[in-house]
Specification:
Low-confidence stretches: none
Shape: globular
Helix content: under 10%
Mean pLDDT: 97
Structural class: mainly beta
Strand content: over 45%
Largest sheet: 7 strands, mixed
Oligomer: single chain
Order of helices and strands: EEEEEEEEEHEE
Distance between the termini: 40 Å
Number of helices: 1
Number of strands: 11
Length: 128
């Protein structure tokens, strides 16, 4: 059974950096496209970033573009989200997600419904 386990969340100050990790078990990372989403209290889940199966393509939400970087290490079965210049509005629970295959991935990667597996989430809190 495929499981995703996020780690690396915490409480930081505005302007700080944080790196989230998501380890996959019960599956091979190279078989999946991967995404990061976040959800703040009272808000809908928001797309943050995604990386395709080869790692050759990455896409970001407008609110994090230029500050966050998604990467993958297939040898370690882990996907990362490097978050720089954090802002209070980045405060949320961050979820990683894995996608086996979706025909329209390159046009619908921001849609949470296309992802097959989800982690339990890790809290990121940015104080001002």
């Amino acid at each position: 059974q495929v499981q995703l386990v996020e780690s690396g969340g915490g409480l930081v100050q505005a302007g700080d950096s944080l790196r989230l990790s998501c380890a996959i078990t019960g599956g091979t990372l190279s078989s999946y496209a991967l995404g990061w989403f976040r959800q703040a209290p009272g808000k809908e889940r928001e797309f943050v970033a995604t990386i395709n199966w080869s790692g050759g393509s990455t896409y970001y939400g407008d609110s994090v573009k230029g500050r966050f970087t998604i990467s993958r290490d297939n040898a370690k079965n882990t996907v990362y989200l490097q978050m720089n210049s954090l802002k209070p509005e980045d405060t949320a629970v961050y979820y990683c997600a894995a996608l086996i295959w979706f025909e329209n991935y390159y046009t619908e990667y921001m849609e949470s419904r296309i992802y097959d597996y989800w982690g339990q989430g890790t809290q990121v809190t940015v104080s001002s």
